[in-house]
C-alpha cells in the first residue's frame, strides 16, 4: 500500500491552523479518545515530527484546540438594532458553536476551562442587559435563563443527532384517548429543535423591557 507523501518539517504547506482544523474534524468524527498524533499526521500527509514542530505533543494540541474554541466564543456576533435583538443574536451564535464544537467542549471540561469558555458570552449579555437598564439580581436571573436555554437546546439537538434512535410513531408511546388528533400527529413527527429554540427564546426576550423604556425601569440592585 502506497504511503502518503510526507512533507518535510517546517514545510510551508502545513501550518498550525490546518493542523488544528484537521484535528477538530477527526475528533468530530471519531471522538477525542481516537485521536492519535500518527493518525493526524497520516490524514495530513506529513511526518509526525512536523506536527510536533508546529504544535507540540498531544496535550499541547488539545490545549490549542481549547484556546481556538475560546477565541471563537469570545468573538460571537451580536447583530441587531437594539439590545434585545443583540441578546437574541448572541444566544443563537452561542448555540450554533456549541452544537458544532460539542466534542471540543468535552476537552475544555476535562481541562477545567469551562468557566473561561462561557465568561465572554456572559459579559456580552450583561452589557446588553445593562443597556436595557436590567442590572443586579434581575440581570443575573435573565442571563442564567438565557444560558440554560442555549446550553440545554444545544445538548438536546446534539443528542438527537448522535444518540440512539427511537420510532416516533410507535403506537405504544401515545394514548388513544388524546382527543386532539392534530396535536397527536404533531407530537409523533420529529422534533424541530430550531423552532423550539426560537419559540422559547422569543418568550424570554418578551420579558425584557422595550429599549425605549429607558435605562432604569428594571433596576433592583
TrEMBL record:
Gene3D superfamilies: Tetracycline Repressor, domain 2. One of its GO terms (molecular function) is transcription cis-regulatory region binding. Residues 36-55 bind DNA. Residues 13-73 form the HTH tetR-type domain. Keywords: DNA-binding, Repressor, Transcription, Transcription regulation. One of its GO terms (biological process) is negative regulation of DNA-templated transcription. This is TetR/AcrR family transcriptional regulator. It comes from Mycolicibacterium hodleri.
Amino acid at each position: 500500500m502506497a504511503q502518503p507523501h510526507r512533507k518535510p518539517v517546517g514545510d510551508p504547506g502545513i501550518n498550525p491552523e490546518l493542523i488544528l482544523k484537521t484535528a477538530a474534524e477527526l475528533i468530530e468524527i471519531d471522538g477525542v479518545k481516537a485521536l492519535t498524533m500518527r493518525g493526524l499526521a497520516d490524514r495530513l500527509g506529513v511526518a509526525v515530527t512536523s506536527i510536533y514542530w508546529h504544535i507540540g505533543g498531544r496535550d499541547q494540541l488539545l490545549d490549542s484546540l481549547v484556546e481556538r474554541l475560546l477565541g471563537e466564543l469570545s468573538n460571537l456576533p451580536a447583530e441587531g438594532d437594539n439590545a434585545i435583538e443583540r441578546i437574541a443574536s448572541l444566544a443563537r451564535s452561542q448555540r450554533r458553536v456549541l452544537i458544532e464544537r460539542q466534542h471540543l467542549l468535552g476537552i475544555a471540561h476535562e481541562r477545567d476551562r469551562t468557566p473561561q469558555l462561557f465568561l465572554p458570552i456572559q459579559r456580552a449579555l450583561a452589557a446588553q442587559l445593562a443597556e436595557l437598564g436590567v442590572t443586579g439580581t434581575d440581570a443575573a436571573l435573565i442571563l442564567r435563563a438565557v444560558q440554560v436555554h442555549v446550553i440545554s437546546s444545544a445538548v438536546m439537538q446534539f443528542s438527537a443527532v448522535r444518540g440512539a434512535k427511537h420510532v416516533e410513531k410507535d403506537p405504544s408511546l401515545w394514548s388513544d384517548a388524546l382527543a386532539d388528533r392534530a396535536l397527536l400527529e404533531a407530537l409523533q413527527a420529529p422534533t424541530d429543535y430550531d423552532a423550539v429554540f426560537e419559540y422559547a427564546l422569543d418568550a424570554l426576550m418578551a420579558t425584557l423591557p422595550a429599549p425605549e423604556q429607558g435605562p432604569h425601569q428594571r433596576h433592583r440592585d
